Amino acid sequence: MASPPPPLPGWDESCTVGVPELDDQHRRLFRALEGLRASLQGRGSALEGLEGLLRDCAEHFADEEQLLARVGYPRAVQQRVQHRVFLGRVRRLAEGVRGGTEAVGEGTVGGLAAWFRGHVCGLDREYGEWLRGRGRE
Length: 137
Description:
By secondary structure, this protein is mostly helical. The protein has helices at residues 20-39, 46-71, 76-99, 106-133.
């Protein structure tokens, strides 16, 4: 019997940015990644999971970018660039799965989750600290 895969990198309190709506969205996106992983064990469709992740990430990134533009966050462009890179990666993967040229495996899902955690607990926390330093949330 194969051992279960290791846990995916996920959200915890160290990833809090201090903007409740965005923190909630981050938690939902980590759950979406868990759902994508569950599809690998036959619980749902990997393509549906990727398409849902793409849709939810696009919505979240738009919300986040709008906030950062509104408050004049100095690293907003870096955020936008990273968002576009991640969305492109997920979009290409979904297109490949749809076309039968790509498959989703543990390594793929783990890589997406690791990138997302690194982004949230890195760049996103930085804007949270910046906002708190200016008395904004």
